[in-house]
Each structure stands twice: as C-alpha cells, then as structure tokens.
Design goal:
The complex is a heterodimer of chains A (about 500) and B (about 450).
Chain A (H helix, E strand, L loop, with lengths): L31 H11 L6 E17 L2 E19 L2 E7 L4 H12 L14 E2 L17 H18 L3 E19 L3 E19 L5 E10 L5 H4 L2 H14 L4 E2 L3 E7 L6 H8 L4 H6 L19 E4 L20 E6 L2 E2 L6 H6 L8 E2 L8 E2 L3 E4 L6 H6 L3 E13 L5 E13 L2 E7 L1 E6 H6 L1 E4 L10 E5 L2 E8 L3 E9 L4
Parallel strand pairs in A: 4-6, 8-18, 9-16, 15-22
Antiparallel strand pairs in A: 1-2, 1-5, 2-3, 5-6, 6-7, 9-23, 10-11, 10-15, 11-12, 13-14, 16-17, 17-18, 17-19, 19-23, 20-23, 21-22
Chain B lengths: L2 H14 L4 E17 L2 E19 L2 E7 L4 H17 L11 H4 L11 H4 L3 H18 L3 E20 L4 E19 L2 E4 L2 E5 L8 H13 L10 E7 L1 H14 L2 H5 L20 E4 L20 E6 L2 E2 L6 H7 L7 E2 L7 E2 L4 E3 L6 H6 L3 E9 L9 E12 L2 E14 H7 E4 L4 E2 L4 E3 L2 E9 L2
Parallel strand pairs in B: 8-15, 14-20
Antiparallel strand pairs in B: 1-2, 1-4, 2-3, 4-5, 5-6, 5-7, 8-21, 9-10, 9-14, 10-11, 12-13, 15-16, 16-17, 17-21, 18-21, 19-20
The chains are: A alpha+beta (about 500), B alpha+beta (about 450).
C-alpha cells in the first residue's frame, strides 16, 4: 500500500540530529479550559470516551523542473477533531473553523453517536510529558524558502553533470511543521511538534534508439535543516542519475520463480507489505487478515525477527506520541519466525482487551486514527553480504526498489524492483528491466534463507497509504536472500 | 459568507499590495460518512472544510500560498506570504495566469448538483449501509466478515477569481456506497470490493445490488491458486481497464511530453491501436463526477480525444505548460485549494465496443481474466507495466477456477497494439475514469 516517490539503495548515516538546545515551548494550541469544555460537551449524551485532537500544520513545498525552480509554496492547515466512543460505535466531527461556537458544534455532533440524554460532567485533563525522539531546534517552517530551493538546484546540477545521457531532472522538496495536541476523558493531555522534511529527485536518461530509463532517489526525516549538510543534495542527484544510467541497455526480466538477493535499506518495504499491514489490529479484530489468530505460531523462517519502532532517533516514521496521545514504542512483531504481537490503536486495543502500542495514527484532523506502522525493520543476521551473493548460482539481485502493495486477506503482496541485475555464478550480470516480486506473506518469509549482518534504514522517504490516509513511515532491511520467489517479467 | 466576493476581495488585495496578477481559488465542502458492522453503526463522521489558495505573479515571479484560516488576519497573512514567495522566486517568462483568450466561454455542463443528495436524511446512509451488509451476507454463507461497508455524501462549492477577468463558481454533489466483504473457505480468505459513486441519488445503484455483487466477487476468488508461467490472451475487467487507461492518460500530460519524459512524446498523429480504440477526456460529460464548467485556473473544460480511433490525437495542457509547449490549454488544470494547478484528467474513458464481455471470453481457448491488480501500474516514461494480478482462469471459452499470486507484464504501447477486443460494458465505477472490459491478444503471466 505505500506509494513511494523515491526509492533508494544507500541510506543516510546522519539520522542522528544534533542534540542542540530545545526550542522554546510555544503557546498551547487551544486553551486548556476550552479543551475541557469540548470534552464535557462531547460526553453530554453519555459516551464512554471522548477525545479532542487539535492540529496546526505549516508546510512548504518547492518544485524544480528543467533546471529551474518552477514554484515554491507555503500553507497552513489547521483544525480540531472530536471523537466520541460509545460501546463499539464511534462518532467523529471536525472543524477547520476555530471559533468557539464552531468547535462546540463539532463536539455536540460527535456526541450524537451516544443515545443518552444530556447530563454535564467535568473532565479535567493534565499535561503528560513524553520523551523526545527528534529534536529540531529551528522549526523547518522558519527556514528561508531560498535555502530549500537551493537544495534542488544543487541536486539538479550534480545529476546533469553525472552523465551526458541524463536528459531530464525533476525535483521536489517538502517539509512540514506539524503541531498536535490530544486531550481525552481519561484525563490525559499531550502535545507534540513533528517536523518532517524530504527531498526527492527523478531522473530520465536517454540511451540509443529512444530508450528511456528512470531513476529516483531522496531522503529526509524528522531532522533539522542541518541534515542536508551531512546528506548532501549532490549525492541525491547523483544517485538518481546513476540508477537511470545504470539501467540503460537492460534486458527483459525472466518470468517465473527465482532466487533473489535484496540489497539492504529500502527493501524493507518487503516486510511492510508481507507482514506489517497484516498485523494491524483493525484487520486482526475483524478477521480480515490471514495473520488473525496466529499469535505464537511460526509464520516465518527462524532467521526472521521483525520490529516496529516509533522511537528511532529522527526516523521518518518516529513519533513521540501517536495521534491519540500514546507514546511511541518499540514492538517486536515476529521473533525468530514466531508471531509475537500486533499493532494496536486505542479503540481496537480496548475492543480486544489489549493495550495500545502507540500505533494510532491519522493523516490529519480530517481523519479517524487507525493502526499504522512507524519504522519497520528486520533485525540483522550473521551472514556477510558478499557471501550471500557469492552462494547464488543463478538468480536476481534487486538493488533499488519502487513501491509495493498488499491484499491483506489472501496475503498476496508485490514489490517493485526499479534496478535489478542477473546473478550468474555469484556475480552480478546484466541489468534487468521491469521486474516485480510477488508472494504470499508467510510463505515468502519462510523462504528467507540468509540474513545479512548489514542492517540499514531507508534514507527517509516512505509514504504509506491505507484507507485513503497517507502517513510517513520508515523501513529497513539488511541484505537478504529469499528462495523461490515469483518474479514478474516478460521473458518466458 | 459570500465566497465569490471573498475571492474577488483577496485578488484585489493582492494586486493593491503589488501583485501584477493574482488568482484566488476557494473550495468549501461538507461531508458525512457512515460505516456499519454486524448490523450496527461502526462510525459516523461529519465535517465542514474550506480553504483558499492564492497565486500571484510579480515581475515574472510566481508565489503561491494557501490557508484554511478565513479570519481577516489569516487572509492578510496569506496575501503577504504569496507576495513574499514571489519576491524570493526565480523569474520565468512563462509564468502567468491564463489570459482573456484562454478563459473564454464556459461549455454546457448540465446539472452538477442534486438537492436530494444535499438534503439526504442522516439515517438514509445508515439504512443503506445496513442493507448492503445484509444483502452481502444473504448472497453467500461463505462471507465471514466485512472489511468495511459504508455510505457517504459530499457537497462542495468551488470559486475562482483572477485579475485577468476570471470570475466563476459552481456547486456539486456526490453520493457513494461501497462494500468490502471477506469470504472464507478451507483456511483461505478472499476479499471482494464493489461500489457506486454518483452525483445524483437517482443514478445510484441499489444498496442491495452493491452488497450482492461485492459478495459474488469475493466468493468467486475462493480456491484461488497459481498457474504456470506462460503467454496467453488476457482480459481486464472494467475496473482494471480503468487503471490501465489512466496510466496511458498520465503519459499524455503535456508537461511529460514537452520534457520528452513520456512514452507518447514522439507519437502524435501516429497509429497506436486499432480504429476501435478511442480514449477521451471530457470535462463536459453529462452527469460526470468530474464535470465542471472550468478547470482549476478558470479555463473552460472541453472534450479532448487523447486516442482518436486508434491514432494519438491530443495531449493535455494547463496554462503554464501550454505556454511552454506553444499549445493551447485544454482545461485540464487540476488542483485543490492547497496546491498549484497541475495537469490531470477530468472524466476519462475508453469508449465502449460492441461485444459483450461473455463474447470476448468465449473466443478465448485458454487465458486469464484479471479482476484486480496489485502495484502502481505502468511507468509513463518507459511504458513498462508489471503488476500482481488476481482473477479467473479461462478454458475453452469459459471461466473456470480463481487465480492468485501471479503477475502480468508488458509494455503499454505494445499492449495498445495488441488490444483486440473492447466490451460494450463501459462503466464509471467509483471514480472519474470509465472503461469497459478489454482483451489483449497476448501478455506474459508469471506464476509457478
């Protein structure tokens, strides 16, 4: 389900942001008294639980085309969502009008889900402090747009200088400074400021006889703008250009089962699709996932340990709190092949008699929170990446990846390989075009036969789509060998 | 609030503060959705939303900002930010709003707004969703659960004003139903998905028929298995064809063509497919979901054949790209208030043929009928397509067993040439892209 604009092979080594002075805490998004008033109105018909979610997001985006900055824009989206839970039912209303009467209207609309008669109770909240996994001393919203634009110009220059066959370079830089506050009838009030940036570069290279190949690369995270000093845009441009040029002259991909070796990093999208979505508690509770009812069972090779971690320092999917105010966590989902846990938001946790794992995320105040991944990765093994490759007589080396998608019910997942090479006698051969891998989650993971000692996070550009909501996520994987994978291609 | 006046006021304010040109785009909407589960409401969401995007040009420099804060202070900040961004931007002679010549007269859209949808009683959606769930269960006992069953309505208003003389607005309604049952048998789970999405309540299929069809689509996938790797004739059902043709239309974007980053770049006037193939973008399609008098920058919408009886006919342009490519805008600037216009389709459809889907299947000895795809579709630059596929196997002209965990792969240009059958079942199923069943002479299928 993730839709990803810039795949990657190498990852940033600069994910650790400098621990500079914390920025001065801004004024609360909404006065505490108003939050408490909204909670009281939300509960006036006798709901079991109510929550007020406040969001103010400043964003910037810059687009480069044909070596020119085509546009730069900034914007503000702000709103308040009120959720009321009554039994298994949920009422939700939101307003982007911050007028007190408009907010009170939203609260009483959400309250309608409960059937009781009006009775006012008080719901005091107190602020809970949470640890920070990202420190961004200067909000990205405060950085001059011209500095953001110059990143793209630099990347464009480097991509075009890389090879004369590079004919087009398109680039985009986007960032946001997202402030959220969550108050609920359990008395908890939490706030967070989530800065996030990403740069992505797409390159077209032209070979003989009008052959065109594409390459794309990018990165970012919950990092200060100084990130770009250690993750230089020139590297981004060159890597995108390298991919496009390297695949010129690629041959058609052979169709059918093969042994594949996945390069480390962004290949972690395999886990995201093959198991991650299938472990989200909404699918589990409804019985629509093939992983439902399989806790404690062996669902993967014993070389496979899968972790979802919202606390990775500066990670793209990291969260101090989720969008229900629960602190981010590190969760072991699969340990040595055995299914250990699911990803819970508070609603599904409650209905299933569990506790939230800090996985309740929402795209914005316009959406209900749902269980989502944060940063999902495979724990390293002890095989050397060179040895893994050397042992393969014939197969496919998958170097860079596009996006992927999964059908939760039958477990079928695909992931797109944008740069691949034939493996012959343990060595890389010709580049191969238009490859895609397909499998069924648990079966594919049972066929994992080597796990490298070279764990690598992706450089910070994943976007995951679910139920129409997009969320930033991180993934990671060491070099991995999987046997007997169906590879889609055109050559029979 | 009079949003048309507000749009004009924002434009005036921007020009007074120094913008040579200014354009305000306002969107105001309200929506309500409901999902049910096991005979009960699962969730109910209601909302109102609004926002304004402001584009300014000063000395060939472009600035754009947006906000959902309509307070006077919010609007002041919007104007200041757009102007500030323009000052910081690099000049480009191509920058500018559509001029009087591009704006022109709006075509006839027919009605876009249905009072019945705008005033839909709250419990109509709840009842409809419950009925869908019930009908879906009644259709086949192997339905074990539903991923979601829902209904919703949406009312929106759009206003555009510019210093170049654009002033216009329109309102529209939408109503939709969807069901996603999961069928179980022998430890296998298979999902189905069916929906309807219309501007007018009277055009909407009954909840019962949506629920039943969703279930039929789920249960017919039970027992799905892989097939061997091979090359066979392949059919796409209308939903799958719709995603295929939107890939083709992406490559018809005037911007990609101008950048030589499109598989269609050098093919204008060339034959791409048999004369039975006509792919049209039509912003004036009666009752179409994307039908509107003007596009995101005030340019009148129109009917544009992309592939006309097999020949690559027209590309799609917004005002900026048209200027760049020395062409005329085609009314294909798409946007929300929070983004600058970019090229997109309106109502896009592959015109229907004459054969029924059954006839197209009957002519196939052995082949694959694809009912859903997994993946991101074709690469519009190279034309390569490789995707996961689910569907039904064809033997001796008849559908036999379900198939999963296979891929289909090919090149879009080659596939267009290979397109040897178009069904008579054109439908806009849940979106702005319409298509019938189609058949390709041969595609590569990768499986066991």
């Amino acid at each position: 389900m993730p839709r990803v604009s810039a795949p990657a092979r190498r990852a940033s080594t600069s994910q650790l942001a400098p621990l500079a002075a914390r920025r001065i805490a801004p004024a609360p998004l909404l006065p505490q008294a108003l939050l408490e008033r909204l909670l009281a109105v939300a509960m006036e018909r006798g709901g079991d639980f109510a929550e007020v979610y406040v969001e103010r997001t400043h964003s910037t985006s810059v687009v480069l085309e044909e070596s020119r900055i085509k546009s730069a824009q900034t914007g503000l989206i702000q709103g308040v969502g009120v959720r009321v839970i009554s039994g298994g039912k949920v009422g939700y209303a939101f307003s982007d009008d911050w007028d007190e009467p408009a907010l009170l209207r939203a609260a009483s609309t959400a309250a309608m889900i409960a059937q009781g008669t009006g009775a006012e109770r008080a719901f005091p909240v107190s602020r809970i402090a949470v640890p920070s996994h990202y420190r961004v001393p200067t909000p990205l919203a405060d950085v001059e747009v011209s500095l953001k634009a110059s990143l793209l110009t630099r990347a464009d220059g480097a991509a075009r200088a890389f090879d004369s066959r590079v004919t087009q370079v398109n680039g985009a830089y986007v960032d946001q400074t997202r402030r959220i506050a969550v108050a609920n009838t359990e008395g908890r009030y939490t706030e967070d400021t989530q800065d996030l940036c990403r740069m992505s570069i797409q390159v077209v290279a032209q070979g003989k006889k009008n052959e065109r190949r594409t390459g794309s690369y990018g990165g970012g995270g919950r990092v200060p703008f100084t990130h770009w000093a250690t993750f230089p845009p020139e590297d981004v441009g060159r890597e995108a250009a390298r991919q496009a040029v390297a695949t010129l002259g690629a041959v058609d991909c052979a169709a059918g089962p093969q042994t594949v070796v996945l390069a480390p990093g962004w290949s972690g999208i395999l886990l995201h699709e093959a198991v991650g979505h299938g472990l989200e508690a909404d699918f589990i509770r409804k019985g629509t996932s093939l992983f439902a009812g399989k806790l404690g069972q062996k669902v993967a090779s014993e070389l496979v340990t899968v972790i979802d971690d919202g606390t990775v320092s500066s990670g793209r999917g990291s969260i101090n709190i989720d969008d229900e105010g629960t602190p981010g966590e590190r969760k072991v989902l699969i340990e040595n092949g055995v299914l250990k846990g699911y990803l819970y938001d508070s609603l599904n946790a409650k209905l299933m008699g569990q506790r939230s794992t800090g996985s309740g995320r929402r795209e914005s105040f316009k959406h209900l929170p749902i269980p989502r991944m944060t940063n999902t990765f495979l724990a390293p093994g002890n095989h050397h990446p060179e040895d893994i490759l050397k042992e393969v007589k014939r197969g496919l080396y998958c170097a860079t990846f596009g996006g992927g998608q999964v059908d939760i019910s039958n477990g079928n997942f695909v992931f797109e390989v944008s740069e691949a090479y034939q493996i012959e006698d343990g060595k890389l051969g010709r580049p191969v075009k238009n490859a895609i891998l397909i499998g069924v989650g648990p079966e594919a993971l049972k066929n994992v036969s080597r796990v490298g000692c070279d764990p690598q996070p992706d450089p910070g550009m994943g976007v995951c789509g679910k139920n129409g909501q997009s969320m930033p996520v991180g993934v990671g994987l060491p070099t991995v060998r999987i046997d007997n994978v169906t590879v889609g291609g055109t050559q029979v | 609030m009079d949003y048309q006046k507000l749009a004009k006021r924002i434009v005036q304010r921007a020009t007074k503060k120094g913008a040579r040109q200014a354009e305000a785009f306002i969107e105001v909407s309200r929506q309500s959705t409901v999902r049910v589960r096991e005979g009960q409401i699962e969730d109910l969401t209601q909302s109102t939303a609004k926002g304004v995007g402001l584009r300014v040009v000063t000395k060939d420099r472009l600035g754009f900002a947006f906000t959902s804060d309509f307070e006077p202070s919010g609007i002041d900040l919007l104007v200041d930010q757009a102007l500030k961004l323009a000052e910081a931007a690099a000049p480009n002679k191509l920058n500018g709003l559509p001029g009087a010549r591009d704006l022109g007269r709006f075509g006839d859209t027919g009605a876009l707004y249905d009072e019945a949808v705008a005033n839909l009683p709250g419990d109509w959606k709840v009842k409809a969703a419950l009925e869908m769930e019930k009908a879906g269960r009644a259709e086949d006992s192997r339905v074990s659960t539903f991923n979601a069953v829902g209904a919703g309505d949406f009312v929106s208003e759009v206003y555009v004003a510019s210093s170049e003389g654009m002033a216009g607005g329109y309102s529209g309604t939408y109503v939709f139903l969807y069901a996603m049952p999961v069928a179980a048998e022998g430890g296998q789970l298979q999902k189905g998905y069916w929906l309807d999405y219309k501007r007018f309540l009277g055009d909407l299929e009954s909840p019962e028929s949506i629920g039943r069809e969703a279930t039929r689509r789920a249960v017919r996938m039970l027992g799905a298995r892989r097939v061997k790797t091979q090359q066979v004739p392949v059919l796409f059902d209308p939903l799958v064809t719709a995603s295929f043709v939107s890939g083709v239309a992406k490559a018809a974007s005037g911007n990609a063509v101008h950048q030589q980053a499109s598989m269609l770049a050098a093919l204008k006037g060339k034959r791409l497919a048999s004369e039975h193939i006509t792919l049209v973008d039509n912003g004036l399609l009666p009752r179409g979901l994307a039908t509107a008098p003007f596009d995101g920058e005030g340019v009148p919408t129109r009917r544009t054949p992309i592939i006309d009886r097999g020949v690559m006919s027209s590309f799609l342009y917004d005002a900026f790209t048209a200027r760049k490519a020395k062409a005329r805008p085609t009314g294909n600037a798409k946007r929300g208030y929070n983004a600058l216009p970019s090229i997109g389709t309106t109502n896009l459809y592959l015109e229907a043929g004459t054969a029924s889907p059954e006839e197209l299947i009957k002519e196939v000895d052995r082949g694959f009928y694809v009912t859903s795809l997994l993946g991101h579709g074709a690469n519009p630059v190279t034309g390569e397509l490789s995707a996961g596929a689910n569907g039904l196997w064809i033997e001796n002209g008849e559908l036999t067993h379900a198939v999963q965990e296979v891929t289909v792969a090919g090149n879009v240009l080659k596939m267009l040439q290979d397109l040897d059958g178009v069904g008579n079942d054109l439908q806009f199923r849940g979106g702005t892209v319409g298509a019938p069943t189609v058949r390709f002479r041969q595609l590569t299928l990768s499986g066991g």
